[in-house]
Amino acid sequence: MLSVKWLRENVEVMKESLAKRKTEADLDSFLRWDGERRRCTREVDELKYLQNKKSKQISQFKKESKDAVDLINGMQHLAAKIKKLEKRKKELDNKVTDFLLNFPNRLHPDVPWGENVEVRRWGKIPDFNFPVKDHQEIGEHLGILDFKAAAKITGSGFVLCKGLGARLERALINFMLDMHIKKGYEEVLPPFMTNTSSTMGTAQLPKFKDELYKLDKDDYYLVPTAEVPVTNIHREEILKEDKLPVYYTAYTPCFRREAGAYGKKIQGMIRVHQFNKVELVKFTTPETSYDELEKLLQDAEEVLQKLGLAYRVVKLCGEELGFAASFGYDIEVWLPSQKKWLEISTCSNFESYQSRRASIKYREKLTGKTRYVHTLNGSGLAVGRCVVAILENFQDEKGNVRIPEALAPHLGGVEIIERG
RNA sequence: GGAGAGGUGACUGAGUGGUCGAAAGUGCACGAUUGGAAAUCGUGUGGGGGGUUAAAAGCUCUCCCGAGGGUUCGAAUCCCUCCCUCUCCGCCA
Fold first, then answer.
1. Which CATH number goes with the domain that contains A63?
2. What is the pLDDT of residues A111-157, one digit of tens each?
3. Residue nearest to nucleotide B44 (CA to C1')
4. Could you report the per-residue pLDDT of A12-60, keeping only the tens digit for each?
5. E strands, A352-400, where?
6. What is the domain range of residue A283?
7. Residues whose CB is below 7 A of strand B
8. Do the domain assignments include residue A108?
9. Which residues contact A267 (CB under 8 A, 6 or more apart)?
């Protein structure tokens, strides 16, 4: 979230941010609550000062075995008054906090208005001299994707990977993780459920609770992305500046209710309630976070390069950018069946939005002061969608699929998936 | 699931109703000492929110001893609820 102080003093700046996002917020109410809150705080503080002073006198009297009855008289009245005011103060505190928790991050000035802006393309969009099939058709034909079985086991919006389909997912996960560790990311395998505080820390709560699977008997949520558990590794910590930047990579399944997507046609495994993803997470100083974002983006891109899949990078416009992000890119892979680009990674800089929520700071060596770190993350990459892209881009006329060379060592040397 | 123990500052750890935001030690930072270092000595060393300020620094008030309530003129200390950690038993991959 944003700092109250900053928001109070930068309402006009924020209005532009909101307009870019095409959202609205009741900033007037916020300012009113905040003003009243401060008046109330001041009053409470003054009364407490009085109370503390008298308490000390009482204590002194008792020590000297003097009668303190006169002093104690009237204190009850004061205590009651304070209690009443504190209740009001708490209400106002809550209003301000709730507002901030539901208020999006400020945008970096470079975030475009209107539509996403293409930054670059890589690779050659494949030409097919035969009618292309979509991944669902190919997957079912090859017997490696089974949507019917998944629907029976669980329900719609799930997929069962079989045989080489399952092995392909597993190979991709290992392939990606191995690449990232070489770049200095520390691999972590976090819990796949998070508590309320953690889920609040990365801003999935309170605003997006409908997107999450919540456990009934425990106060836990299934992770919608590894971002949640991994960023919270350092919740309520003060890191040493020497330690920064910190890089993590993690594989987790991701669970999403996709509550808003029911009306849309769900295409095969492009949008499912459970998918695998390898995530990249960084903690940096404010000074380096934008350089680190570029590097993170490159690390994610490199996965597609090694796989030989054509993609483009777009700078996200205000409307498309996530609630907690200041700035970000999407990587989109080419999807032959739709002749469209498909989002396969989002790389974002959250600046201090998450770190303030989760209280993740570092001690600045020069001044000895604490500052909020900047948090960044990006998919590196969404594994299921990678499978989709591989099936479609590397299909042949017979419906067989060539496996990218780079993946071979992780797939026991398999070069092609054929109908078995 | 049952029984017990415990949660205090970056860390270890004292503190059971009044001047305790909290002893002591460790660590860390700065300074002295040294050719340099170690050792030693000295000084300093948490966070949130207000006020003062154009702003910062500084000064000042207030809150924070797992979280939330309560008792009291006054709570780290007493009471209640919840959460977490550890040990033993049970169950179990």
1. 1.10.287.40
2. 999 999 999 999 999 999 999 999 999 999 999 999 999 999 999 89
3. A368
4. 889 999 999 999 999 999 999 999 999 999 999 999 989 888 888 888 8
5. 360-363, 370-372, 374-382
6. 117-417
7. A 3-5, 34, 38, 41-42, 44-46, 48-49, 51-56, 58-60, 62-63, 72, 75-76, 78-79, 90, 238, 368-370
8. no
9. A134, A136
The span from the CA of A356 to the CA of A132, in Å, is 48
Structure tokens at A257: 């209710």
d(CA A333, CA A126): 12
Is there a domain that residue A180 lies in? yes
Q: With both helix axes pointing from N to C terminus, report the angle between A135-142 and A383-393 in degrees, rounded to the nearest 10.
A: 80
A297 contacts: CB under 8 Å, gap ≥ 6: A313, A329, A331, A347, A378
Nucleotides in chain B near protein beta carbons (<7 Å): 10, 18-19, 29, 45-51, 61-63, 69, 72-74
Q: Protein A367 CA to nucleic acid B56 C1', in Å?
A: 14
Specify whether A347 is located in the same domain as A205.
yes
Task: Calculate the angstrom distance between C1' of B74 and CA of A88.
Answer: 22
Which residues does residue A277 pair with via DSSP β-bridges, in sequence order?
A252, A382
Cite the DSSP H helix spans in A213-329.
Answer: 227-231, 289-307
Pairwise CA distance, residues A222 & A195, whole Å: 9
| Residue A226 backbone dihedrals phi, psi, to 5 degrees | -65, -20
